[in-house]
Design goal:
- By secondary structure, this protein is mainly β.
- The protein folds into two domains: 3-84, Sandwich (Immunoglobulin-like), CATH 2.60.40.10; 94-176, Immunoglobulin-like, CATH 2.60.40.
- It has strands at 3-5, 12-15, 25-33, 41-46, 51-54, 62-71, 79-84, 94-98, 105-110, 116-125, 132-137, 142-145, 153-162, 167-175.
- The strands form four sheets. The chain has a four-stranded antiparallel β-sheet, with no helix packed on it. A four-stranded antiparallel β-sheet has the order 11-10-13-14, with no helix packed on it.
- The protein is elongated and about 85 Å long.
- It comes from Catharus fuscescens (Veery).
- InterPro entries: ECM_Regulatory_Proteins, FN3_dom, FN3_sf, Ig-like_fold.
- It is found in: Secreted, Extracellular space.
- One of its GO terms (cellular component) is extracellular region.
């Protein structure tokens, strides 16, 4: 009945059935790492609520959550659940440039992670500050950058945008080939 959704490395959303209303009481919510009962925190939540996001949690940790309906009308037994947060997000560990031509090159990266919503590939000539951005779906691990200038060094930055909202980046340099004159 009490359950969690939208689990990330540092947060999750709790959902529970509507047992109370604004007028009939409130909920006491206790939560903390299962291994450390002493570090439990307690929150009071209005009886009108049926969900709550807990954040600032530790990654890869199992939390014990107890929801106690404090009703002035009926007795409701406490509901409990255990939720394990995800591992901490890791950045792309390698960015590879390949198939370099005068006006394009291929960018790929690893690893591909389930916790990534999308990747942003930023690229611009060195030196310089004109940067373009390509959005790449989180399921993909490569893209082709086109419409480049020949014989130019580009800085390419791959940013992983995680479902939790965090971002991690890694950069590499790429050189385009000399173009045909004419």
């Amino acid at each position: 009945r009490l359950h969690a959704t939208d689990v990330t490395s540092s947060s999750f959303r709790l959902l529970w059935p509507k047992l109370l209303s604004q007028d009939t009481g409130y909920y006491s919510l206790e939560y903390g790492p299962g291994a450390e009962p002493a570090s439990r925190r307690t929150l009071q939540v209005s009886g009108a609520h049926t969900s709550l996001v807990l954040s600032d949690l530790a990654p890869q940790t199992t939390y014990e959550v107890v929801l106690i309906p404090e009703s002035n009308v009926h007795y409701f037994p406490p509901q409990s659940t255990r939720v394990t947060t995800l591992a901490e997000e890791i950045s792309p560990v390698q960015v590879l440039i390949s198939e370099s031509g005068p006006r394009s090159f291929h960018v790929s990266w690893a690893p591909v992670l389930d916790s990534v919503a999308s990747y942003q590939v930023l690229y611009g000539p060195l030196p310089g500050n004109s940067v373009k951005v390509l959005e790449v779906d989180g399921r993909h691990n490569s893209t082709v950058v086109e419409q480049l200038a020949p014989n130019t060094t580009y800085l390419v930055t791959v940013t992983a945008v995680y479902r939790s909202g965090k971002e991690r980046s890694l950069s590499a340099k790429a050189c385009t080939q000399e173009g045909e004159q004419g």
